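Journal club prep — side note

Before the paper discussion, L.F. wants everyone to see what a predicted structure for a comparable chain looks like in token form. Sequence:
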Amino acid sequence: MAISPLRVYDNAQLCMVMKARRQAVVLELMNTEDIRSQEQLRARLKARGFDVTQATLSRDIRDLGLVKRSADGAYQQQGAEPSVPASAGVALQRALAEFATGVDCVEQLVVVRTGAGLATLAGDDTILVISRDPRHAKALARQLEEWSQFA
């Protein structure tokens, strides 16, 4: 039995609508929860009525441009800036003022020196920050020096 072209078109249209709805729910979940694995996302989608395969989920993640945050491993849209509470900046300023003994910049690397036992790199007194490029590294080093109050 042959399938009519109209029926194929209707099925393709239905698939596009379902994909758009499913991807909208994926984005909604990303904005309301910290989703750290495809299995966790798959379970949340299933609870919303979308029973998807891992392959479909992988395609959706790629199509939506989702990436994992380095801080906690949760998915977010590519280029989205994670929200950092103001208190985190204040805590960083206090920690630098109390513990930093120096800041150096070489190309895109920023090296923060601390007292012994306060860091984990190069003999337990060094924190290494790798910036996007030398210009951003210099700006970061200036900011860290200002916050540390030793400059």
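L.F.'s comment for the group: The chain has five helices and five strands. Keep this in mind when we get to the figures.
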